[in-house]
Amino acid sequence: MSTNFYIQAQIPSVYQKWWLDFKTNKLALNALVIFITILLIAIFANIIAPFDPTTQFENAAHRPPFWYNNGDGRFLLGTDDLGRDLFSRLVYGARLSLSLASLVVIVSSIIGISFGAFLAFSASWVDTPIMKIMSFILSLPSLLLAIVIVAIIGPGLPNAIYAVMLVLIPHFLISTRSAIKLELKNEYTTAMCLDGANQFQLLFYAILPNILPSLVLQMVVAFSTAILEIAALGFLGLGAQAPYPEWGTILSESYDYLVFAPWSVAVPGLAIFFTILSINLVAEGLRDVMNIEKHR
Amino acid sequence: MAKSDVIRLSIKIKNSREVNSMPILELKNICKKYSLVTGLFSVNQLHANISINLSLNAGKTLAIVGESGSGKSTLAKQIIGIEKPTSGDVFLNGKKLDFDSSEHRKERFREIRMIFQNPYESINPQLRIGETLNHTLKINTRLSSLERRKKIEQTLLLVGLQKSHQYHYAHSFSGGQRQRIAIARAIILQPSIILADEPLSALDVSVQAQIINLLQSLQEKLGISIIFISHDLSVVEHIADDVMVMYQGSVVEEGKVSQIFDEPLHPYTQKLFASTPTYRNRFEHAIQTPVAKIKKVLNKPYCSYVDFCHYREDRCKTSSPEIVQTKQDYRIACFKYE
Amino acid sequence: MSLLHIENLNVSLKVQNNDLLILEQFSLRMAENERLGLVGESGSGKSTLALAIMGLLSSNMKLTADYMNLDGEDLMKMSVEDRRCYISTKASIIFQDPLASLNPCFKISQQVNEILSLHAIRGKKLKHQTSVELLDAVAIRHPENVLKMYPYQLSGGMNQRVAIAIAMIGNPKLLIADEPTTSLDVTIQSQILKLLFEQKRSSQTGIILITHDFPLLAESTDKIGVIYSGQMMEHASTKNILKHPHHPYSRALLDSIPRMGQRHNKGSRLYSLGGQIPSLENTPVGCRLGPRCNKAVKQCVKPPQLTSIENHGKVRCHSPLYKNKELSRS
Fold first, then answer.
1. Are residues C214 and B278, on separate chains, in Cβ contact within 8 Å?
2. Is residue B330 within 8 Å of B256, Cβ to Cβ?
3. B258 in Cβ contact with B80 (< 8 Å)
4. Residue B164 pLDDT level (bands cut at 50, 70, 90)
5. In this structure, are residues A75 and A66 in contact, taking their beta carbons and an 8 Å threshold?
6. Which of A1, A190, B174, C132 fits a 20 to 30 Å CA distance from B294?
7. Which residues does C74 contact at the CB level (< 8 Å), separation at least 6?
8. Does the structure show a pLDDT above 70 at C262?
């Protein structure tokens, strides 16, 4: 029994191997650290933020960050036009952005992957028309499509979420269907069919382990896309409305005061930038790591 | 006594019963046609298999020899149950197998197991070897987790691998070892028949010898019958009891290995021998100057080998020879020998 | 004068800060018009050797040699461009997969014409005439029709013939065929080989035939070289190697081929060499065959050198065999 443990520990599983390879990529590793920091800030927002995001402080409007001459030490990153602490708003905004993006990705991936798997296995006539529709949707820029959808169903945070979800589903559907169809052509899938596996057994035992890398990668990329699109919709006034501390919304509110309160635009912009950059670098690292596996 | 001994004994009893009675696998009049759409309104019929009759006895090895286009892969797919024959029947242990019945399918997948040609593509690269074998057992048996583990280890030892190999992934193994894994996957369900589709083509010469030896020793130990598809005549001579030569979808000659190798009669078989360096000298004449192609009469049958045959007569251009039994355990499809 | 003379060729591959030796201390001498067969299993480095001679190694591989002489000129003394120019006039190569070596997007005529232009044959009419002659020489019936086709419309055997025709443009002095028939049917195999060696007879070309199939070489070659794990293990005339293989590996290769007449007997086994080819990262100390060799002696921990044996050829072994070995010829 003990020998078995030892041997199992010696030969890393596919996922352990990915982590070991990932660690060697310094850039991706640092990006992951940054992202985890942002995640922790979002999770512990109520402990980290000194103030409530909606509290307005009298006589404290447009205060610059604390390192400026006329900065106020209470407000680390300054205040906005209504005297609200920017730092607290950003911290709560992180929580909002990340949680909304997670929700969007989880729901759209579940729907997209399930439908994609269903289409891949079924040989029915619906396959062709659905694929044509999906290809058409994919050919449009996703942000534009989200804007159009929100313009149709009306602005507001819930509608923005629905729009982004709808826009992301085709990506998951098409890539899942293609990946599964490709796997079905492989000889080892045929071998498993010859073992007597039914479709579910085939999917979970043979196919899923092979398509998991690309699915996971897609979910990570979708996560970053979702954050960006929610922020963009917020900026355009079509997504989260005031007083929600959503980053895009904060950006649009501060935009009017760009000239004499530049920090109120720079800081939320940088928050969005670093979040998305770190996620994308992690995705790049994942792509390298999982492709190495594929070459074997 | 140990469970494995019980199993082995029951196989021996099963085989001894079969020796005097029916063959373990029989194919009667198997035909397979594919329809190819060649134009807006025209459809071509591709006759992949024409009226194949096959019988395999327990514990014996049948070799199917043919080149690309001979229909041997299509025949293999019909035996194994991936394709449904256009007409004809498959009998396993005397029982007719219904392609659409899921019960028959399960039995077929358990009793007839396949080894693929390419060892680099037939094993799932994302699963450990033990997991692959475990899935096979989970789908087909009701063994407990511990029993499955024992069976996996036992099978790995049987094919010349080690117990610890179950934790490795496919990429750590060489071609020969991967083919052993494929053999392990085939025998783990204790089938009566193994269908090996060119299992040696992708392997090096010295490794081929190892795998041939392994197959033979497994056949002796477990009493398995083997259908061996190959184009390598020297391997066929070594391993087969009976030989079936296929050309363009039908069987042109079949018989015991001694008969076919001592005195191949069909012109195509002779050409195969002439093309192999080891056997060349006796059949030099069969591959000399190519003969001119014949203009075919529309809608009239003709012998499929007529374009290359040195012995062709007029009747070869207007009708197709049936396969007939001219001797004990020997059949040939050629007008010259009818 | 020898056509090809290689002395101490080393080809290494750089992988993650390691230098893996694919070919080590490789030496070869080939006369003009000679038919040389190189046999080795996968991983032996024989394809790398073909690419090294042709100057087609990828950029992450490093080549060093004491001497690499092709038809009198030392390739190591030339610049990369000059080397490529020189090799293109003197040598040609045919690969295993004919569909991969012909461009699927162009007709056969366009591909042949491209090479003809490179060999200074110009003019539409002249090119067409030469193309037809070339295809005729490789026994293609109706060459005009074939010229108008794309590679996917032709069978594997036809494509390989076209590849041979293209390779023979410019009358190279050396033709390297890297497993030219492995992916073809058996009956086509013999036709293609016959064609290859007929080419040689009519145009004074030396041929190197690389394969893993020993019996193939028995009939067509003058000399055979046995390669194992990046080194030349034995190099002698065909007759000698087949009758008395001096190296244990050559002997093992010949033994593991099923012999004609050895019918299916219950219990009869083929001779097989246990173990497998050492991976590039873990080459054994001393003789590469050491761990698998049943004739290994204590000396074998020291790497053996290629030594000449009189009336035979060269062998790299501390204790070569001297027994009579008959390969049963039909």
1. no
2. yes
3. no
4. confident
5. yes
6. C132
7. C67, C68
8. no
* Spatial contact of C287 and C317, defined as CB atoms under 8 Å apart: yes
What is the average pLDDT across C141-157? 88
Find the CB nearest B239 among C185, C264, C273.
C264
Distance set, CA C26 to CA B80, C283, C318 (Å)? 48, 16, 18
Q: Report the residue from A14, A195, A209 with minimal CB separation from B109.
A: A195
Phi first, then psi, for residue C120 (nearest 5°) are 65, 35
CB-CB contact of B64 with B244 (8 Å): yes
Asked whether the beta carbons of B43 and B55 are under 8 A apart, the reply is no
Confidence of residue A66 (pLDDT cuts 50, 70, 90): confident
The dihedral formed by the CA atoms of A111, A112, A115 and A117, expressed in degrees to the nearest 10: -120
Element (H, E) at C25: strand C18-31
Q: What confidence score (pLDDT) does residue A107 get?
A: 96
Q: pLDDT tens for residues B111-131? A: 999 999 999 899 999 899 999
Specify the pLDDT at position A5.
52
Residue A195 contacts B, CB cutoff 8 Å: yes
Q: Report yes or no: B176 and B159 within 8 Å, Cβ to Cβ.
A: no
- Beta-carbon separation of B277 and C42 below 8 A: no
**Average of per-residue pLDDT across A268-288:** 92
Average pLDDT over residues C239-251: 87
Q: Looking at chain A, how many residues does it have?
A: 296
Nearest chain B residue to C156 by CA distance is B68
Whole-number Å distance between alpha carbons of C151 and B33: 27
Give the pLDDT confidence score for residue A164 in this predicted structure. 94
Cα separations (Å) of B295 from A82, B298, B302, B317, B335? 95, 9, 11, 9, 19
Whether residues B105 and A196 touch (CB distance < 8 A) is answered with yes
Q: Spell out a b/e string for B269-302, using b for 16 or more CB atoms within 10 Å of the CB, else e.
A: bbbbbbbbbbbbeebeebbeeeeeeeeeeeeeeb
Q: Are A175 and A218 in contact, with CB atoms under 8 Å apart?
A: yes
Give me A262's structure tokens: 């530049």
The answer to whether ipTM exceeds 0.85 is no
Reported as a single tens digit per residue, the pLDDT across B271-285 is 888 888 777 776 766
Q: Which of the two residues, A4 and B310, has the higher pLDDT score? A: B310
Decide: pTM greater than 0.80.
Answer: yes
Question: Residue B213's closest CA among B201, B225, B200?
Answer: B200
Which run of H or of E encompasses C89? Answer: helix C80-90
Q: What's the average model confidence in pLDDT over B186-194?
A: 94
CA distance C279 to C229: 8
Please give the Cα distance from A217 to A221 (Å, whole number): 6
Return the SS3 of A246.
coil
Spell out which residues of chain C touch residue B174, defining contact as CB-CB under 8 Å: 276-277
Q: Nearest chain A Cα to B136, which residue?
A: A195
Q: Which residues of C touch B277 (CB under 8 A)?
A: 190, 215-216, 218-219
Q: What integer is the mean pLDDT of A265-273?
A: 90
Measured torsion, CA atoms of residues B259, B260, B261, B263, in degrees rounded to the nearest 10: 70
Residue C291 has pLDDT above 50, yes or no: yes
Q: How far is CA B209 from the centre of its chain?
A: 19
Quick: pLDDT tens for C48-90: 899 999 988 888 888 888 888 888 888 888 888 888 889 988 8
| Structure tokens that stand for C92 in this block | 């040609």
